[in-house]
Amino acid sequence: MLRALETLGARTVRHGDDLHLSGPAVFPRTPELYCGESATALRLLLPVCLALCGGAGLTASGRLADRPLNGYTDCLRDMRVTRDGNRITVRGSLSAGHYHVDASVSGQFVSGLLTALSHVPGESVLDAGATPVSAGYIRMTEQALTDAGVSPERLAPFTWRVHGGTPFRPFDVTAEADCSAAALIVCLRSLGHEVTADLPEHTYQPDSVISDLLDSSGPYDLSSCPDLAPVLAVTLGLQPGTHILTGCGRLRFKESDRLTGITDMIRTLGGYARADGDAITIEGTEEYSGGVMPDCAGDHRMIMAAALASTRCREPVTVLHADRVARSWPGFIEEWQALGGRIS
Q: Sign of torsion, CA 281 133 184 261?
């Protein structure tokens, strides 16, 4: 994301744990942005580039170029969106108007359009339907825009009037702890390990529900928090009884096909899991056997889940491309070793 922002002309300066960002006076025309495997970068910046740059070329790696973009291609029909291998090209100029976005796959489509339309002079209406997924992240976007002085007006739970063209103002923000990553620590504790995760007390992050899920008896609806599925599934696989995870369809479109990957991983570990449509059924066991994990294409969430499983395995767990866990948790391997984990 930072590399893409710098290509757009943003200035980034680090001071210890602080990051200072300032926007450019003039945005480049149709820039070439590298998004890596970051769906967040792709989905947030695509409409912003249409609003400010007349489009862009966005280069992806891994499975990102194949992940769904229908939230934009369906509602931005006047724009040209083409794919060629790992490159996505968008051309056109976003203008004020009435937009309906399908957010059934990702709420990031809503966040991207709310941000982009705030830059476009004039009044727009954005309708995201009744129940967009991961709505908490949309609320975080609303808060960030409000902090920037361009608060969208909520007409209904997920419909907004956007008064675009008002200059954004600088603001300071303290980044919350990442509940998606911290879920691993919460699951470790639930398996009896003496660790603690300091989750934010008040947050919109959907993945903050991990403790509530572990305290419940299921079924476990993950439609708004699919990133919890790998570590939650591994944890439930070590609890007595039958456990059902629902709302897992979005797992097919992550950095790997996590729906298949989770069931394959648990079976490889010596447990029982099966996928049925958008649900995963798991039968609990006392411990896993260990083994060589199926290749998950370096999916960071699956690597974390394999590390979690290794704490309750009779034999070691082998994970391919384990260094790619740094995509969302830099220093993970060192911190895992500091917790007592053995890596060779």
A: positive
Considering only CA atoms, give the Rg of the chain. 21
Task: Give me the pLDDT at residue 158, please.
Answer: 96
pLDDT in tens, 175-202: 999 999 999 999 999 999 999 988 898 9
Decide: 302 and 258 in contact? Cβ < 8 Å: yes
Torsions phi, psi of 129, nearest 5? 80, -165
Strand partners, 122: 164
> What confidence score (pLDDT) does residue 79 get?
86
Inform me whether the pLDDT recorded for 341 exceeds 90.
no
Rounded to whole angstroms, the Cα distance separating 147 from 29 reads 27
Taken in order of first residue, the domains within the chain and their CATH numbers are 1-93 (3.65.10.10), 95-173 (3.65.10.10), 179-338 (3.65.10.10)
Count CB atoms within 10 A of the CB of residue 29: 11
Residue given tokens 């911190």 in the structure block: 335
**Rounded CA separation 165/85 (Å):** 35
- DSSP letter for 288, please: B
pTM comes to: 0.94
Count of residues for the chain? 344
